[in-house]
Write a structure and sequence with these properties.
Structural class: alpha/beta
Low-confidence stretches: none
Strand order of the largest sheet: 15-16-17-14-13-19-20
CATH topology of the largest domain: Aldehyde Dehydrogenase, Chain A, domain 1
Number of strands: 23
Helix content: 25-40%
Shape: globular
Strand content: 15-25%
Bound molecules: nicotinamide-adenine-dinucleotide
Oligomer: single chain
Mean pLDDT: 97
Length: 490
């Protein structure tokens, strides 16, 4: 049954003012939620309310330990509702339930981490060059616009809301049109935890309408964006017009490197997990596997056996490895890339089609796909597919390998499989990526900064320093004596 969903906008539960729309469960295409998209005037209302609320004593006067307590209550609220949130996340984007549970747990951990960061943050007394005191203080930037994609909503939303609230900002969040539920539930939990009305609003709807108006709004002082590179570039251009700081977490085409001395079973498991978990709908998906020529055939045989064992199934089942893609339109885009790979001379070793029969016929499923025989310059190896498609490429010479890995517009993440720490260090330092995983892949901790280089973005999320992204620095010079100033004696 379709649930009617209201949003939390400027301190009130209500429908947004734009047209109604319906979201669908990717597993079977059934309608899940009906809600209204926001309009530019809703954006203005939410931002004005956020600006007003953030200057009220109930927010601005909160001491760091009080703000921390509030964030802890949000973390507790997420944990208390974790199973319900995970199930909603599954209905929103079709991720397997186990992955949804992990995302919910990570969101709670993010609030807990930034509670600790805000409570223990120390401003600096800087060395003074005279008889005065110099202080460097951090103050909240103001209203933050947070814009998120559909692939891991609760985690990417928590990574923006938690540090922004920790810093004392107000947040207007615009989730992806097709996955609005997590942001709305986070607003509910935040309200119950005692976040004052107006401090957090959620504006579902179209990026070209709601996201655009949010970026342009004069009272929005920072944009935290996760999404595609083209949209991120447009946001950066608009931000330049008001000299607004942004963080842009964008796309990727991440290489994973298997060295001749790698533990092959370990590497196979890591490469399979790196590309096929989340059905490849992951910015850090390891979509190009460079395998040393001396172990290429052995690796390929074990890889294909492992892929054959993946369970592509109903995301509600605990045993599912890969659920459906987020939509039929996205599946068609993935299928077009696989066709392009074939046209470019690649051989499809497995997958390359949708599964059929039973619920597969209604859902937007696509089989895990491995292609070999392509050159690294092929479009399929250059462009982000954001689906379960792996290009397998042999390598021989390390300098050429590194050149190929780096010969890409993106620079988000990479993986190296080797038993020799010297290989890992040398290659890892040479790769142009924001994250390097060695003998592992897709591990995350909120205490470690995350972000990309090149067209994968700028700015960092997570890490204790992540809170600084939502602050501006103010310098104090405080005279400590009554000695006359230079012109006073004249
Ligand atoms: P998208 O760029 O189409 O949309 C992301 C968000 O931006 C959505 O909320 C969308 O409505 C909004 N938007 C669209 N047009 C806008 C505009 N003109 N102004 C303002 N906002 C606008 O991306 P998507 O398809 O939702 O997500 C997939 C992309 O996200 C992939 O490229 C993926 O790599 C990237 N991603 C990156 C990370 C990371 O941390 N680097 C994490 C997850 C996803």
């Amino acid at each position: 049954m379709t649930e009617k969903v209201q949003t939390f906008l400027a301190g009130r539960w209500r429908d947004a003012s734009g047209p109604a729309y319906t979201t669908h469960y990717p597993h079977d295409g059934s309608a899940v939620a009906q809600l209204h998209g926001a309009t530019a005037s809703d954006v203005d209302e939410a931002v004005q309310a956020a600006e007003k609320a953030r200057l009220q004593p109930a927010w601005v006067k909160l001491l760091p330990h009080e703000r921390a307590a509030l964030l802890h209550r949000i973390a507790q609220g997420i944990r208390a509702n974790s199973e319900g949130l995970a199930q909603l996340q599954r209905l929103d984007n079709g991720k397997p339930i186990k992955e949804c549970r992990a995302l919910v747990a990570s969101a709670a951990g993010t609030f807990q981490f930034f509670a600790a960061a805000t409570e223990t943050w120390e401003d600096a007394i800087t060395p003074a060059r005279g008889d005065f005191l110099t202080l460097s203080l951090h103050e909240p930037l103001g209203v933050v616009g947070a814009i998120t994609p559909w692939n891991s909503p609760i985690a990417s939303e928590a990574q923006k809301i938690a540090p922004a609230l920790a810093a004392g900002c107000a947040v207007v969040i615009k989730p992806a049109e097709i996955t609005p539920r997590m942001a709305i539930e986070l607003a509910r939990i935040a309200q119950q935890a005692g976040v004052p009305d107006g401090i957090l609003s959620v504006l579902p709807g179209k990026g070209s309408v709601v996201g655009d108006a949010l970026v342009r709004h004069p009272l929005v002082k920072r944009i935290a964006f996760t999404g595609g590179t083209q949209v991120g570039m447009g946001i950066q251009k608009l931000a330049a017009e008001k000299l607004m700081p942004t963080s842009l977490e964008l796309g990727g085409k991440s290489p994973t490197i298997v060295c001749a001395d790698a533990d092959l079973d370990h590497a196979v498991a890591g490469v399979v997990y790196g590309i096929f978990s989340s059905s490849g709908e992951s910015c850090i998906a390891g979509s190009r596997a460079f395998v040393h020529a001396s172990v290429y055939e052995a690796f390929k045989a074990r890889l294909l056996a492992a892929v054959k064992g993946l369970r592509v199934a109903d995301p509600a089942l605990e045993s599912t490895h890969m659920g459906p893609l987020v939509s039929q339109a996205h599946r068609e885009s993935v299928a077009r890339y696989v066709q392009l790979g074939s046209d470019e001379g690649g051989q499809v070793l497995c997958g390359g089609s949708r599964p059929t029969g039973g619920y597969y016929d209604q859902g937007s499923y696509y089989l895990p796909t491995v292609i070999e025989g392509l050159d690294n310059t092929a479009r399929m190896c250059r462009e982000e597919i954001f689906g379960p498609v792996l290009a397998l490429l042999p390598w021989n010479d390390e300098a050429d390998l590194i050149a190929q890995c780096n010969d890409n517009d993106y620079g988000l993440a990479s993986g190296i499989w080797t038993r020799d720490y010297k290989n890992a260090w040398r290659i890892g330092r040479a790769l142009q990526t924001g994250t390097v995983w060695i003998n592992t892949y897709k591990l995350f901790s909120v205490s470690t900064p995350f972000g990309g280089v090149k067209l994968s973005g700028s700015g960092r999320e997570k890490g204790r320093q992540g809170i600084l992204e939502y602050t501006s620095q103010k310098s104090f010079y405080w005279g400590m004596n009554e000695a006359p100033l230079p012109w006073a004696a004249q």
